[in-house]
Amino acid sequence: MTSIMTPFTPIPIADKQQLLIQLCEQLDDALFILDENLRYLSVNASYELIIGYNESFLLGRPLGIYAAEFLSEQEVAILNKITTYLDSDGFYENSFSITNRYGEVFDCHMSYRRIDVGHAVYYVGLVRDISSATKDKKQLIHLLSFDPLTELPNRKVFLSQTSDLLLDRSQKVVIARLNIDRYRNLASLLGSDGINHLIKNFAARIESLRLTNLSCLGHFGSDDFALLFECNDTKIVRNQLDRLIQMCERPFPIEDSPLAEHSPFFDNLPTTDSAIYCGVSIGISIFPKHDTGAAGLLIKAEKALHFIKEQGGDDICWYEDAIDEATSRRLQLETELRLAADEGQFIPYYQPKIDLTSGAITGFEALVRWQHPTRGLLTPVHFINAIITHKLSFELFFQMAIQIAKQLSSWQQQGFDQHICINADAAEFSHPDFFDMVRGLLAEHQISAQQLHIEVTESSLIKRHDNVKKQLNLLKKLGVFIALDDFGTGYASLSYLQEYPFDFIKVDKSFISNIETDRTQQAIVKTILDLAVALDMQIIAEGIENKPQRDILLAMGCQFGQGYWFGKPVPADVATEMLIQQHNN
Ligand code: C2E
Ligand code: MG
Ligand code: MG
After folding, report:
1. Whether 216 contacts 158, CB under 8 Å
2. Within-domain flag for 125
3. What is the number of structural domains in the chain?
4. Do 279 and 247 touch, CB atoms closer than 8 A?
5. I need a labelling partner for 331 at 20 to 30 A (CA). Which of 50, 102, 253, 289 fits?
């Protein structure tokens, strides 16, 4: 290190030359010096190492080692380019792949400089091995362009290929978006390795179909696939997609993935011990009919896909404007429902439950109504499915349960010892706070558990078996009564009776509607009544609309009933009025 006190000694010329020579020798970059005819004059050690020839061999030989007549056209072109640039600009640089003496290929960055010393012209070349950097870059580009699991083009590449196709405006382009039905259940059943194996297998099978007119098969992650067809006849695309659907009907083998038999979804998936069957849903959009841009087409195909999935999937749906309208209505409904849940717009209406012998009100069923800010009072048919789809069931139950608990407490204070049935979708039971919430409400409002009945519909029992059973058993232990609603409308009515701890069976109104004349309905209801006696359960007939219906049910031995003939669902104050009247009579 120098200091102000130390005298400065310039480096002697001979030392400097020696220093530079040694530096060149020790450089990691390969260095070579050529004469004006591009023949080797000198190379450093790194150059010998990279190229595989030593200096003594190279001296006097032309760049590229071989005489011009042995070089490829491309090599000659590069050499000519180098000389032209060097003579005009004195500098040339480029990145090449070069093959060394042992056949190894290197990605190199090369720079050439023309240096004139006196009358002599020299060309000095510097070669930097960038193989690893290039490899990293190539890998990065690959990662950014292809799905890591299936190696298929990702959304970005798919979009750019679509845009390229759209440049040819005379050509019809069809985009299909594809999802595997019940993918989440499959993923939960198979585990991450198993589902990855299935997706790889699925993608490979689509590729092996070699679909006619298919320009690009994209994979946007999980079960999200996209197909780009260049085709003026949409019937051909339809045929190709039918082939794809048929392909899915062949079982997919499951490799080393023990089926999670305890999975709550196990019962609902078409599986054998070693194979699985995949249904698919497909949404389609067409250029130029539905959109003129790649992104717009992709979105419209996706809307068609969502639409068909909501209808149960396992089908193909071609985009149309009506789908767009339905989608925006659905989105608006979701927003409004979330607001309704936050702002407490759900209120219970009460329908009396009647003792058919005495005509007395024995309790009420609480039926939700939505006080919509602009559309007025809405019945469940307008929103209950959306509540389930958007996973707002627990919020709904919570809001209803609070109001019901307050109502029971208020009636109790007025001397009316009533019970209220609350409807619950099985989705509500899966919430971890469900049981604690019910128990807490009963305690807070000092209501006995017997005053609360919970009605579960058959249709909602198809899902989440384990959790529902656990929750129902806990509630039952607490003293809450449980009813199976809409009995006879589901797939496995009888097996539910065996599986869950019901106290009441509610016979669906579809079996009551013509019971006064229809012998089949009579026979069905009689059988259910016999079954209830054998299982020590009570029957409630739903939808009694006239006296003959009430009379025949009573004659058959049905004790409880509900229906418009006794009273429609009414607001809390009207229900209270009914209780007061009954008390006064
Ligand atoms: P549900 O629990 O089977 O309720 C009976 C439905 O039949 C009610 O329709 C009721 O108004 C109607 N009803 C009653 N008596 C008669 C009759 O004599 N004739 C006819 N034609 N209909 C009658 P609502 O209130 O529109 O409710 C429909 C369904 O929505 C309910 O069927 C229940 O499954 C569901 N729901 C209602 N409130 C709730 C709730 O708070 N939570 C959940 N998860 N579902 C609810
Ligand atoms: Mg009900
Ligand atoms: Mg019902």
Report:
1. yes
2. yes
3. 3
4. no
5. 289
Which pLDDT tens digit goes with each residue over 376-427? Answer: 999 999 999 899 888 899 999 999 999 999 999 999 999 998 999 999 988 7
On whether both 47 and 160 belong to a single domain, the answer is no
For residue 398, how many other CB atoms are within 10 A of its CB?
19
CA angle 561, 563, 569 (to 5 degrees): 120
Hey, how many other C-beta atoms are within 10 angstroms of the C-beta on 576? 18
Q: Which two tokens stand for residue 464?
A: 């989440």
Residue pair 558/533 in contact (Cβ under 8 Å)? The answer is no
Answer yes or no: is 332 within a domain. no
pLDDT on residue 266:
44
For residues 238 and 355, membership in a common domain is answered with: no
pTM for the structure as a whole: 0.64
CATH of the domain at 261: 3.30.70.270
Residue whose tokens read 């198809």: 462
Amino acid in the structure at residue 112: Y
From 367, 391, 515, 564, give the residue whose CB has the most ligand 1 atoms within 8 Å, as the site to mutate.
367
The Cα 579–Cα 418 span in angstroms is 9
Query: Residue 408 Cα, ligand 2 centroid: separation in angstroms?
Result: 18
Q: What are the C-alpha distances in Å from 441 to residues 401, 407, 434, 472?
A: 8, 12, 11, 17
For the CA of 485, the nearest atom of ligand 1:
3
Q: Calculate the CA dihedral of residues 289, 292, 298, 303 and round it to 10 degrees.
A: -50
Residue in the structure block whose two tokens are 């619950």: 424
Q: What is the 3-state secondary structure (H, E, C) of 285-322?
A: EEECCCCCCHHHHHHHHHHHHHHHHHCCCCCEEECCHH
Distance between the two ends of the chain, CA-based, in angstroms? 113
Instruction: Residue 186: count other Cβ atoms within 10 Å of its Cβ.
Output: 21
Query: Which ligand 1 atom sits closest to the C-alpha of 424?
Result: 44
Model confidence at 490, in pLDDT bands (50, 70, 90)?
confident
